[in-house]
Design brief:
The protein contains 11 helices and 32 strands. The strands form 9 sheets. Strands 1, 2, 3, 4, 10, 11 and 14 form a 7-stranded mixed sheet that branches.
């Protein structure tokens, strides 16, 4: 039985394929899922660390039941997905003699969810994880490492918007645009759905086990071909912080987890009504605050933060990619809205500036991704391309700074058919090694970066023309790709370096010493060098 996990910044959805009903089914995990009667049952992406050394943690609704999400406590973590795989400098707590990273918190959360599934009990022989379009290789490598530690026979990944397109089940529509706007990321993806002859499902496979359902049943495979995509670190959590900042400036409201929770409630209210109100009582100063805001002022705050400008940037990026393939706006059959942030009326109105209202669907905002991911277990084949480029760092003499030279550009299908080759020589006499820093390059049209504001993990827009870069091997050990024996000398080629992208979208490197004819690195994942 396949289990699909949509690990979100604010909430997580877990579903399974029910063989009796032949339909996807969202699971409610005792103790972890919200108990407010909410439909569908969501698992808050929250962690409270009781004992870091003993790895005892509380997850999801357990954290809220004990009120740990309302206090400023270094043991409480929210929005931690944003920090996974990111080069973030800032507040990382030292708990019980152990520095707790976002990667560690995310691992505890996912392992706890898998354990809860097994306690129901439900089999977890096949698990499918969804990942944001804009996820860097370091995030996917982290998730792969977590999967290796799970006693699961088969693990796969699929981009979140592609899964959402499958999850809406619009079998009669061919060309779908997914606007996936959750708590931490905005992902847009243009997907073409069609039914092909029976093929072996490809997907984004991390770990093989038994044959999939489709392979054993002979079912025809559906193909989801990704034609265009764009994404950025921008989501509902940012809006919550902006509201807290607004009341901090106008009413000197303190910035705490409790006031952030109140801001989230105001945001949700404004999706249903034109005015919202919450009351905050400070039990230290005995002051109370009436937090009132109407929808017009809320939308002004969004405009002041260039919210809609950032949305336009991603939409235009996707539409430009589509036009290069001869696809115009009118050719798109349906627009699917996914994620909690699409509940905001201003976001829905923004989408309607681009598309006819009768093409827009928003009836499965929370479950579409998890349900669609289950299609991988039914024989759906995903044909995808690289969203990010890969490059090597060099010294830019003109600008007197480091720059990045692309070696594999975005837009190429993977796995790559032919390797990209570089030949390098020594620059000094008796040079003991050759160093090369490789990075994954984000969108070249600006974007966002993640940083700390106090203990809040927030995002900031990059100016147009700036490129977000995730170095993959920038450590003392990782930079060295070739140790030279005998030492190198200037004036001749010394090593041949080949780069390829595998079917998991990982950059791999092979290094050959031309002098000794020895292979120094053989098809090594670059991110593992560091």
């Amino acid at each position: 039985m396949a289990i699909a996990i949509d690990f979100g910044t604010s909430n997580t959805v877990i579903s399974r394929w029910n063989p009796a009903t032949e339909q996807p089914e969202t699971l409610k995990l005792p103790g972890l899922s919200q108990i407010s009667g909410q439909n569908p049952p969501l698992i808050p992406s929250l962690v409270y660390v009781e004992d870091a050394a003993g790895e005892r943690v509380l997850l999801g609704q357990q954290v809220r039941d004990r009120g740990y999400d309302l206090a400023s406590d270094p043991r409480f973590f929210r929005n931690f997905k944003r920090g996974i795989g990111s080069d973030i400098q800032g507040f990382l707590p030292d708990l019980d003699g152990r520095t707790v990273s976002f990667e560690r918190v995310g691992e505890w959360f996912l392992k706890g969810a898998i354990s809860a599934l097994r306690e129901i009990p439900l089999p977890t022989d096949s698990v499918i994880f969804t990942v944001p379009v804009d996820s860097f290789e370091a995030y996917r490598n982290w998730l792969g490492g977590v999967c290796e530690s799970l006693a699961v026979e088969q693990v796969r990944m699929i981009d979140e918007p592609t899964a959402a397109a499958l999850g809406y089940g619009l079998g009669d529509r061919e060309l779908l645009l997914v606007v996936d706007f959750g708590g931490g990321t905005l992902d847009l993806s243009l997907v073409r759905l069609d039914v092909a002859s029976q093929k072996t499902p490809l997907g984004f496979i991390l770990k093989w086990g038994k044959k999939s359902f489709a392979e054993s049943s002979g079912q025809k495979a559906k193909t989801a071909r990704v034609l265009a995509k764009a994404g950025q670190n921008l989501g509902g959590s940012d809006i919550d912080y902006w509201l807290v900042d607004h009341f901090s400036q106008t009413q000197e409201l303190p910035k705490t987890p409790l006031t952030t929770r109140l801001a989230e409630r105001l945001k949700i209210q404004l999706s249903l009504q034109t005015e919202a109100e919450e009351v905050y009582f400070n039990d230290q100063t005995f002051e109370s605050y009436e937090l009132k805001i109407n929808r017009d002022r809320f939308e002004e705050i969004l405009r002041e933060r260039q919210f809609f400008d950032n949305l336009d940037t991603s939409m235009n990026q996707v539409l430009q990619q589509a036009r290069r393939q001869g696809i115009e706006v009118g050719d798109i059959d349906a627009v699917l809205l996914v994620g909690g942030t699409v509940q905001i009326p201003a976001v829905q109105q923004w989408v309607q500036q681009y598309f006819d209202a009768n093409k827009i669907r928003r009836d499965k905002p929370f479950e579409a991704i998890s349900h669609g991911a289950l299609q991988l277990s039914l024989g759906t084949q995903i044909e995808d391309f690289l969203y990010h480029s890969y490059g090597i760092r060099y010294w830019n003499r003109r600008d007197n700074c480091h720059s990045w030279h692309p070696i594999i550009k975005s837009g190429q299908p993977y796995p790559t058919a032919e390797p990209v080759e570089l030949v390098l020589g020594a620059s000094l006499e008796n040079q003991p090694s050759i160093e090369l820093i490789v990075g994954e390059l984000g969108a070249e049209t600006g974007g966002t970066e993640v940083f700390f504001d106090g203990d809040r993990l927030v995002t900031r827009s990059l100016a147009g023309g700036q490129t977000a870069v995730q170095p993959l091997n920038d450590t003392d050990a990782g930079r060295t790709i070739a140790k030279l024996t005998p030492p190198g000398s200037p004036g001749s080629d010394r090593v041949r370096v080949q780069f390829t992208i595998d079917d998991r979208r990982f950059l791999r490197i092979t290094v050959e010493d031309l002098l000794t004819n020895q292979t120094l690195l053989n098809n090594q994942v670059v991110v593992e060098l560091s």
